[in-house]
């Protein structure tokens, strides 16, 4: 229970990796603020946490809306106190050939995946400066280090997350605030329901063959699980990672090593 009495906020907490991270934080004793644009989904995760004896609160949060972020920050401060940990996880992903990559897709992807993290860090760091300490984890991706075809907007957003992380970590380390990012490989979440169809088109594979295709090229010969990612995120948030800041940690079964 390394997070007893700690306050942790997760964006995009209603589904997939965000949901897994919320559960792991609650298991470790944190008061978890499960935020998402999808309030019903966030409430569902909170119900599960409460049923398992944890503490959690659901709040609707659109990471592209600064006013909404500040309102959520104020509610958290009032109900639980200043945040100790903030996980910028919310994101979208679309695999599509470059000439079908619309300006709208570019703007939407960059807004949610990158600008959303920039805006959320304003609130997170404001609270952490008041507290005198804090730790942030930003969700990047294996696609934040290696560009692949049909993925221009997504890769650009996730490369940007690593730049944002390094810049913030350099500025706020002297104030006791650590900022890291994680770079998962393929984890089967609802995000992949449509992506396996689009990725299949790119590689000429049936959608049902796509996950096996990935598995076979990963040295550890399995896809990552929600727990694999959640445990690494909780480690980076915790005092066990006290000397780690500005890093982009690969969580990909050895699929890439730089
Ligand atoms: N699944 C993977 O293979 C994988 C790999 C690497 C990185 N990632 C990253 O992990 C994060 C989570 O992905 P996932 O696979 O769990 O996807 P998911 O689709 O299951 O979950 C994403 C969540 O983000 C929320 N969201 C979308 N737009 C939002 C907004 N404007 N404001 C607040 N919330 C919003 C959605 O409602 C959803 O609950 C994303 O940043 C994704 O890019 C995923």
From TrEMBL:
Source species, domain of life: Bacteria
Coiled coil: none
GO molecular function terms attached to this record: oxidoreductase activity
Pfam families the UniProt entry points to: adh_short_C2
PROSITE patterns, sorted: ADH_SHORT (PS00061)
GO biological process: bile acid metabolic process
Assigned keywords, A-Z: Oxidoreductase
InterPro entries the UniProt entry points to: NAD(P)-bd_dom_sf, Sc_DH/Rdtase_CS, SDR_fam
Family note: Belongs to the short-chain dehydrogenases/reductases (SDR) family.
Protein name: SDR family oxidoreductase
Species lineage: Bacteria, Bacillati, Bacillota, Bacilli, Lactobacillales
């Amino acid at each position: 229970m390394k997070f007893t009495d700690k306050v942790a906020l997760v964006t995009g907490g209603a589904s997939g990796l965000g949901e897994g991270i919320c559960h792991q934080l609650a298991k470790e004793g944190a008061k978890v603020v499960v935020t998402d644009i999808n309030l019903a989904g966030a409430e569902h995760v909170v119900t599960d946490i409460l049923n398992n004896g944890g503490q959690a609160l659901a709040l609707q949060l659109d990471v592209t809306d600064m006013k909404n972020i500040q309102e959520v920050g104020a509610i958290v401060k009032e109900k639980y106190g200043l945040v100790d940990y903030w996980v910028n996880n919310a994101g979208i992903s679309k695999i599509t050939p470059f000439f079908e990559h619309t300006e709208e897709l570019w703007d939407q992807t960059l807004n949610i995946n990158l600008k959303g993290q920039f805006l959320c860090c304003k609130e997170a760091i404001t609270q952490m400066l008041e507290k005198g300490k804090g730790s942030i984890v930003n969700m990047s991706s294996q696609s934040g280090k290696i560009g692949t075809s049909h993925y221009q907007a997504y890769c650009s957003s996730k490369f940007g997350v690593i730049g944002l992380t390094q810049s913030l970590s350099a500025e706020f380390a002297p104030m006791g605030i650590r900022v890291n990012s994680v770079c998962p490989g393929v984890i089967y979440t609802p995000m992949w329901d449509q992506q396996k169809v689009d990725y299949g088109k790119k590689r000429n594979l049936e959608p049902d063959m796509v996950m096996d295709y990935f598995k076979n090229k990963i040295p550890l010969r399995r896809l990552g699980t929600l727990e694999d990612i959640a445990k690494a995120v909780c480690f980076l948030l915790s005092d066990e990672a006290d000397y780690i800041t500005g890093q982009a940690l690969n969580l990909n079964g050895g699929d890439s090593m730089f």
